[in-house]
């Protein structure tokens, strides 16, 4: 093989040196220290081809919508016959995504499977697991592993996994609006605690109760799916699925993000007092429907839920949101839980009082000692100036005025109050009122602090009164 003459060799080296110098000046900023891994990105920035530009365009992600949620619902074949009505109240065929996980395959009674329910899956048989004999509560292990099995379904373009029980009812549109405020690319564990102090004390005040429902961001669900079985080996003696998940997440360094719109309903009896003074946050879920009275009088539990969902479908942002106003000529106070109930008090009562739920319910555990609840309540009273006339949502229709489309909800008296009129001078009896009509404009923005104010329209002697919602003004801050 021949060799280059010395002059040609020097010429070649000079050209190579100039090329390398040019390459260095163009590619590298002398104020930064680049690693070899930075070379490709730098090359893309200096010489973007149309293909490279298409792959690196920084378009903002689309806002979270209903298609980005996947629900994992835990059920049992033994109770599905009557609990299916709760899932069907909120499930939207071909719109909502998710699965109902059962402990065994459906019987012929439920086949072919109804499209009005989430598509079913049968949970993995955990009796084959090495640790199965050590599990204190195999049923609870099945429930918590539903997270893993939901993730393994492999749905595409998922931002949030929402887990709940088959007796949980969701207001899905509100849930979407709340979740879109969070960064789904980060670790998020979103839910709420129990209404009862003892339930939280028995487990954790920082735990999301699964019956109320909770949401895991996609990255967190992926992490949980990869670590859950190892966690179960670490905690085989835990006997509640919610607490097992909480313990695993605490070990991973992930804390609860609390949202008040989820409702575990660790209560018994009549919860109308709670629902009539809902916290100032979007209504997201309702659980333990079978352990409380039907939420509307003279209806079955299933019919009650469907009745409430009629209001939610008309205006999901406003449902159960409490609005308080006063009628000075009669000295009446009005408290409206939109789409659910309306109360008239025969005295001017401040908002600070009316925002406290009437304790029409009782605590979950009979052995509990005060304080019972995680919120302040008012005792029901026979004082005619403090006891409400109670009306429940009956019907609705759409209407329009000069300001645009509006919804008219009608509330009818539940029963006679059975008390004399409030006695102080100037206070008028509301015994003759049998219907309240509430006029509300377009949907309420789901923003922190967003609320309605209202005016009462009433003419003496009429058995119907009207409440007209409007934007709040400066003077509305007083009682």
Automatic annotation (TrEMBL):
<protein>
    <recommendedName>
        <fullName>Fringe-like</fullName>
    </recommendedName>
</protein>
<keyword id="KW-0812">Transmembrane</keyword>
<keyword id="KW-1133">Transmembrane helix</keyword>
<dbReference type="Pfam" id="PF04646">
    <property type="entry name" value="DUF604"/>
</dbReference>
<feature type="transmembrane region" description="Helical">
    <location>
        <begin position="6"/>
        <end position="27"/>
    </location>
</feature>
<dbReference type="InterPro" id="IPR006740">
    <property type="entry name" value="DUF604"/>
</dbReference>
<keyword id="KW-0472">Membrane</keyword>
């Amino acid at each position: 093989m021949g060799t280059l003459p010395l002059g040609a060799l020097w010429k070649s080296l000079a050209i190579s040196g100039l090329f390398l110098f040019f390459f260095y000046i163009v590619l590298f900023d002398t104020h930064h220290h680049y690693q070899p891994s930075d070379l490709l990105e730098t090359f893309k920035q200096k010489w973007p081809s149309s293909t490279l530009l298409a792959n690196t365009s920084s378009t903002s992600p689309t806002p979270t919508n209903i298609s980005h949620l996947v629900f994992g619902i835990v059920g049992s074949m033994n109770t599905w016959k009557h609990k299916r009505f709760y899932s069907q109240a909120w499930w939207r065929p071909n719109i909502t995504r998710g699965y109902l996980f059962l402990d065994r395959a459906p019987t012929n009674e439920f086949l072919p499977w109804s499209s009005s329910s989430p598509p079913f899956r049968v949970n993995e048989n955990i009796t084959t697991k090495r640790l199965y004999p050590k599990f204190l509560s195999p049923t609870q292990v099945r429930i918590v592993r539903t997270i893993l099995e939901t993730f393994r379904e492999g749905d595409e373009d998922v931002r949030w996994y929402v887990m709940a029980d088959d007796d949980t009812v969701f207001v899905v549109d509100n849930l979407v609006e709340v979740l879109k405020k969070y960064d789904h690319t980060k670790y998020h564990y979103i839910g709420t605690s129990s209404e009862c102090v003892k339930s939280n004390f028995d487990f954790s005040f920082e735990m999301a109760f699964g019956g109320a429902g909770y949401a895991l961001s996609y990255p967190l669900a992926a992490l949980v799916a990869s670590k859950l079985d190892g966690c179960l080996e670490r905690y085989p003696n835990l006997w509640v699925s919610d607490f097992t998940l909480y313990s695993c997440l605490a070990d991973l360094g992930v804390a609860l993000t609390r949202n008040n719109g989820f409702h575990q309903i660790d209560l018994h009896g009549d919860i109308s007092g709670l629902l009539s003074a809902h916290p100032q946050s979007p209504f997201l879920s309702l659980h333990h429907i079978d352990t409380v009275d039907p939420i509307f009088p003279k209806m079955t539990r299933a019919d009650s839920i469907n009745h409430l969902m009629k209001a939610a479908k008309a205006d999901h942002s406003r449902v159960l949101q409490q609005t308080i106003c006063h009628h000075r000529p009669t000295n009446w106070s009005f408290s409206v839980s939109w789409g659910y109930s309306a109360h008239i008090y025969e005295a001017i009562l401040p908002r600070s009082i009316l925002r406290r739920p009437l304790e029409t319910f009782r605590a979950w555990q009979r052995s509990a000692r005060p304080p019972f609840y995680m919120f302040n309540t008012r005792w029901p009273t026979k004082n005619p100036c403090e006891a409400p006339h109670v009306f429940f949502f009956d019907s609705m229709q759409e209407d329009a005025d000069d300001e645009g489309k509006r919804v008219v909800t009608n509330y009818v008296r539940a029963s006679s109050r059975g008390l004399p009129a409030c006695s102080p001078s100037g206070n008028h009896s509301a015994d003759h009122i049998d219907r309240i009509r509430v006029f509300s404009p377009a949907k309420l923005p789901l923003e922190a602090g967003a609320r309605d104010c209202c005016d009462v329209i009433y003419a003496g002697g009429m058995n119907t009164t009207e409440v007209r919602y409007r934007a709040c003004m400066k003077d509305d801050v007083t009682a």
